[in-house]
Design goal:
By secondary structure, the protein is α/β, with parallel strands linked by helices. It contains three helices and five strands. A five-stranded mixed beta sheet has the order 2-1-3-4-5, with helices on one face. It starts with a helix and ends with a helix.
Length: about 160
């Protein structure tokens, strides 16, 4: 009985300490006040990142505006670049390993206030290449690029949540 009381008391003390320091479990995206109607300014509205970011904002309850004039916040996507480069080659000068990268440069403004200043994020992933498995490696590259885009969206959503 005494052991059980001490265990409950210790759990209570831990719970109070954790809640007092501001700790909270990571949950769903919570948009800061003023982001109810957001316009995404981009040169390519059909890029993987733009589509994934817009989908995630909609999922979070943010309305995507068609024009900057009636938006409460503007997310500016200055650059959205993806490609691959050779990392290593064989003795016969045949590529054996590639790196897929995705780079974005962005800023978030709420009226005249800049919530997120202009910053650049780059994420990379590597994969080995085998010329006998061309179709499978092409699909692997697509999947890696999708994973990179999801990482970038998750990072930006976390940044916005902390505002």
């Amino acid at each position: 009985m005494l052991f059980r009381s001490l265990r409950i008391l210790s759990l209570l003390v831990v719970a109070v300490c954790v809640s007092a320091c501001g700790f909270r479990l990571q949950g769903a995206f919570v948009a800061p006040p003023g982001m109810e109607r957001t316009y995404i300014e981009s040169s390519d509205r059909y890029s993987q990142f733009h589509r994934a970011f817009e989908t995630e904002l909609r999922r979070a309850g943010v309305e995507i505006s068609d024009t900057a004039a009636d938006a409460t916040a503007i997310f500016t996507l200055f650059s959205d670049d993806t490609a691959q480069r050779v990392l290593s080659v064989s003795a016969r000068n045949v590529p054996t390993e590639y790196e897929v990268y995705y780079t974005i440069t962005y800023r978030l403004d709420l009226g005249a206030t800049t919530l997120l200043p202009q910053q650049t994020l780059t994420r990379t992933r590597n994969y080995t290449y085998d010329s006998t498995l061309v179709l499978g490696k092409a699909r692997e590259e697509e999947l890696l690029r999708e994973a990179i885009v999801n990482d970038l969206v998750r990072i930006i959503m976390k940044q916005i949540t902390t505002l």
